[in-house]
Write a structure and sequence with these properties.
The protein is built from five helices and eight strands. With 177 residues, it is α+β, with helices and mostly antiparallel strands.
């Protein structure tokens, strides 16, 4: 997210309902990374938000060359460096009481690990969809990048943080039904 910034203040978005409808009509659930399909499906049931993009986060290393692999990191003494491809979810949130409550809950997710989870806005999403926000799992020092090269131990930490991140997001959404 090369245009990642602190979360912007909510703005009036009279086009929210139409944007949400178009987004849901274009949603191709088969294009979503399998481990987070349920999250995206459940988010689409919330009337005050919709997703813009998402990625489960991927680990590329000398034993896994597929940049879209969903496999967890193997236990290994032979992996020194890992290319981590950012885990994130981008939302557009309605400027309403429910939307603002959801926004506040989303901000809390970064407390799982403040050095590796950021909540904010991306300028290029905001230009298309007012009140768009991003939750991402990325080492803080790389928070403006879509990928990072980290050592194996940090990659293991990222994997654990990513898994906790999505588990908490899943829980947060389920609590809204």
């Amino acid at each position: 997210m090369e245009t990642f910034a602190k979360p912007k203040d909510f703005a009036d978005n009279t086009g929210f309902r139409e944007q949400r409808k178009k987004s849901l009509n274009k949603l191709d659930i088969n294009s979503i990374d399998t481990p987070i399909i349920d999250i995206i499906e459940n988010l689409s049931k919330l009337s005050y938000c919709f997703t813009l993009q998402s990625c489960y986060g991927h680990f590329v290393h000398n034993f896994q060359k597929d940049p879209h692999s969903l496999e967890p990191l193997p236990m290994s003494d032979e992996i020194k460096s890992v290319e981590y491809r950012i885990a994130y979810i981008a939302f557009c949130i309605e400027n309403s009481d429910c939307g603002k409550e959801f926004f506040n809950d989303l901000k809390e997710i970064q407390l799982i690990d403040t050095q590796y989870i950021q909540f904010g806005s991306a300028e290029w999403f905001w230009k298309r969809h007012l009140n768009s926000f991003i939750l991402q799992v990325e080492p803080e020092r790389y928070m403006m990048k879509d990928k990072a090269f980290v050592d194996y131990n940090e990659a293991l930490h990222l994997q654990k943080t990513r898994n906790s991140f999505f588990a908490e997001l899943r829980y947060l959404i389920q609590m809204r039904f």
